[in-house]
Amino acid sequence: MAKSIDAAHSETSFFGDVCQFFDHAAQFTSHPEGLLDQIRSCNSVYRFRFPIRRGNGFEVIDAWRVEHSHHKSPTKGGIRYSEMVNEDEVMALAALMTYKCAIVNVPFGGAKGGIKINPKEYTVAELENITRRYTVELIKKNFIGPGIDVPAPDYGSGEREMSWIADTYQTMNPGQLDALGCVTGKPLALHGIAGRKEATGRGVAISIRECVSVAEDMQKLGLEAGLSGKRVIVQGMGNVGYYTIKYLTEFGATIVGICEFEGAIYSSEGFDLDEVFNHRKTTGSILGFSKAHKEFKNSSEGLEQECDILVPAALENQLTEHNVANIKAKIIAEAANGPTTPDAASALIERGCILIPDMYCNAGGVTVSYFEWLKNLSHVAFGRMDKRYEENANLNLVNTIEKSTGVTLDATQRSMIIKGASELELVNSGLEDTMIRSYHEIREIKMENSRIDSLRTAAFVSSINKVAVSYMNMGIWP
Ligand SMILES: NC(=O)C1=CN([C@@H]2O[C@H](COP(=O)(O)OP(=O)(O)OC[C@H]3O[C@@H](n4cnc5c(N)ncnc54)[C@H](O)[C@@H]3O)[C@@H](O)[C@H]2O)C=CC1
Ligand SMILES: O=C(O)CCC(=O)C(=O)O
Q1: Does 331 share its domain with 432?
Q2: Which residues does the annotation place in the binding site for substrate?
Q3: I want to staple 164 with a disulfide (CB 3.0 to 4.6 A). Which of 28, 131, 251, 295 is the partner?
């Protein structure tokens, strides 16, 4: 990979790494440097601090919301709750959101938030105070709203936090009809959407299934096409990792390794997700699981075991120049944001591996967030208006065919054909179509230019071009 103007910056910076990938891809586009600079830069970085009551005193919390690009509104991206969060990280994650949304044609600019706490060290009441106060700070500066900036879950946050955000925003904006579209990833009972919780992991599994379905690409790796029997190691068993394992298993893959914070386990025969999950719930650790052939107290050793596909689904900077030589996988599916550093990515590509890039691989979450936002703005659940209509039309059709052919279907066949689509089925269909279509869009860009070295570069080319068109069409005002 050619060294870029931002390479020096990237030694210590996640945002620098993202810029380095961007600059490498930009050479395959024809946009003027000024426009590229506008696309690459973070438009607004809001850093703030606020106090919460704790014990007999109070504690000051550091927080951020970064809106990377306003080429489309609203901006969109999760909120990370982590004691390691910092400004550079939130900027990088916001930038990735811009490129991610562009790849999957979700009409949002990119944003991300961060709250610098370890959520495990706070009571639920304290977490609620922090989340509500964070929301109020965003409201004060116009950094949240259904048409402005729409947060969602990320590492360390989930449906519960999104409910608190929605309730705070709604309370502060009485009568605002679209208020519930101010945040996505809400529980179903609070105007969320069926399938959002599983969406990122489901999308990751679909992206991998699509990648391994291309026989020509698998042949180059010395692998058979298809997921059946493929050996997979997953790092992180949180929201994204858990559902990635669930759907990969459903699609026929074998989960041979799981790495968590406290260590890693390996079994060449494969793991049952629920057995491992329940063991961890009961004992507090994945270590000590009786069906594991090997276990590692140093979790990162788990990444280096024999497998076909490695899925980092925890945090950034997991595959680096220090461990890349020991990675055995031929396919890396970046379920986490930024798990591979530019140096490690170059080494893997030179070795002939396929890297399914984060900005595409984990885009299922924001895709279904988009559906949730649409549902909130239209104030009606998907399928509500047409489900029964569709069923009646199908019923008439089946009756007519039965009458004219003399063939009678059994009850199972009838209900399968007649049934109208539920919200979950529509969401999953939209998600699957988006992931499959986007994979081939990126792959074709790569295939069309032999100088484009990776799916990541192709993905960046695709998003840079899309964002550039938006900026050019908008013009500059005043
Ligand atoms: N939640 C979502 O919808 C989306 C999340 N992502 C990305 O996916 C990644 C994971 O996010 P979530 O699953 O939501 O977070 P989560 O908080 O639900 O789970 C993360 C899991 O990773 C584990 N973990 C942390 N450090 C680890 C390490 N060094 N080794 C092994 N395991 C480790 C944690 O113990 C936890 O179980 C993040 O990079 C996030 O930005 C990307 C797109 C959407
Ligand atoms: O669902 C969303 O809006 C964003 C999820 C997210 O933070 C991400 O894709 O990294």
Answers
A1: yes
A2: 76, 100, 369
A3: 131
